[in-house]
Amino acid sequence: MVTGIINDWAHQTNKLERLWLLAKIEFKLRYYENRLGLLWALLKPVMDMAIYYVVFKIVLKVDVPAFASYLFIGLILWNFFVESTSGTIQILQTKKYLYEYSNMNKLEIYISTLLANTIGFGFNLLMFLIFYNLLEPESVGLQFTNLWIPVVFLNLFILSLGISLILSNVFVVARDVTQLWGVFTSILFFMSPIFYKLAMFKEALPSFEYLNPIAGLIINARRVLMEGVNPDFNLLLFDFFYGIFFLVIGFILLNKLGSKAAEKI
Questions:
Q1: What is the DSSP letter of 223?
Q2: How far is CA 79 from CA 44, 45, 48, 130, 202, in A?
Q3: What H or E segment, with its residue span, contains residue 146?
Q4: Strand, coil or helix: what is 196?
Q5: With 0-12 CB in 10 A as exposed, 13-18 as middle and 19+ as buried, what is 204?
Q6: Tell me: the pLDDT tens digits for 217-231?
Q7: Inter-axis angle of helices 39-52 and 106-130, to 10 degrees?
Q8: What are the pLDDT digits (tens) for 156-183?
Q9: Where are the alpha helices (DSSP H) in the chain?
Q10: pLDDT value, residue 155
Q11: Taking the C-alpha atoms of 62, 65, 68 and 71 in order, what is their torsion angle to the nearest 10 degrees?
Q12: What residue ranges are annotated as transmembrane (predicted)?
């Protein structure tokens, strides 16, 4: 059943062109009616970073080197995850017209939405690299280990896609999954090393980075971008396992529940 969904999509023509077109349209529509337009995609993580910087660095005096950059990379990874999961819970309802009145595979709708988020992530990552390498006094500079970031992001993309598939298909039969996921992400946010010092996080929650894939992704992103070292490969393998596991569960639910989405929503 899982391979059937993939094969069905793989045999369609003009897949990549259609995905890219949908992703661009999705990305533009988000900022179309805003006066600042695309600038909002760049301002959100900067504004979040400024708030947490004041609270944790100035008020609570957290002792983390290059804290602004430390926050910045953690927040853009977190924002991608939340936008890609919370933002797609009702996707089978809001984009019902795409799969009902065209030959579009449902999987394409998910991937194109995450690709739109990837465009925003790319802008934010570029902004981070400029800030960290040109303005951050404690920067270690550009390193070959920076080339690992696409692998870390691929892991994040797979994980987000899998959870997106699960949540949106569960929504077909249980609408309150939206509220439950909102509460869960609030808890997960404070149980991830976004603004905590890593040693403090590990001391308070031993080995929790192996139970929380977002924590592992943030840790590895900082290793390859800020510390100039290779990712923790054990942690990376664990996170890929989580991503693939959730993706398979998502495909199963899409096959069982997604086919009935149009009549149930």
A1: I
A2: 9, 8, 10, 19, 22
A3: none
A4: coil
A5: exposed
A6: 999 999 999 999 999
A7: 60
A8: 999 999 999 999 999 888 888 999 999 9
A9: 2-10, 15-31, 39-52, 67-86, 91-94, 96-100, 106-130, 149-173, 177-190, 198-204, 213-222, 233-256, 261-264
A10: 97
A11: -70
A12: 36-55, 67-89, 109-135, 147-173, 180-199, 233-254
- Measure the CA–CA gap between 125 and 128, rounded to whole angstroms: 5
The number of beta carbons lying within 10 Å of the beta carbon of residue 191 is 17
What one-letter code names the amino acid at 27? Answer: F
58 residue type, one letter: I
Q: For residues 74 and 234, give the distance between their C-alpha atoms in angstroms, rounded to a whole number.
A: 20
Cα–Cα distance measured from residue 243 to residue 155, given in angstroms and rounded to the nearest whole number: 7
DSSP letters spanning 56-100: IIIIS----TTHHHHHHHHHHHHHHHHHHHHTTTTHHHHTHHHHH
Which residue's entry shows tokens 């992001």?
153
- Taking a C-beta distance cutoff of 8 angstroms, is the pair 164, 65 a contact? no
